[in-house]
Amino acid sequence: MAKRIRAEVRNAVHRRIRRKVRGTTERPRLAVYRSLNHIYAQVIDDEKAQTLAAASTTEKALAAKTGGNIDAAKLVGKTIAERALAAGVERVVFDRGGYLYHGRVRALTDAARAAGLNKDEIVEAVAADAEAAPPEESGASEAEAKPKRSKKAKEAKERPEPRIRWDRHCRP
Length: 172
Fold this sequence. Notes:
alpha+beta
């Protein structure tokens, strides 16, 4: 079995993503790079090969105690959204850079959406969450609506009837 180096695998995944994800003038690409100690984000117009906005934890204004945590990623996401909106960009295509959409990468994009980037995605996400979540009811009404069961009834419900398996050796 060939030895796989994590950085090479991430770069291969990033190249595969970049074949599909292109930033345009109307909807540039929000690219994320995550190192062990810092996180970087850029809004890039691939048609003009131009960076429209950038933010990272290496900046003195955004420097936290450490740049390698979720709080720092949220701060960078909020800042990149503000800078992109100031540059006239309201919608972006997200490029996760070969990283899993989890942890710091997800925190950055969620903070950018909360700060105003891709407002239509926020509405869609809230609608999807509302459909998935059952309507909440108070605890008192649930107690009144459900009759109490005895212990034997609960045990009978948990234990299903034993199934008899009929095959060619055992006929009824």
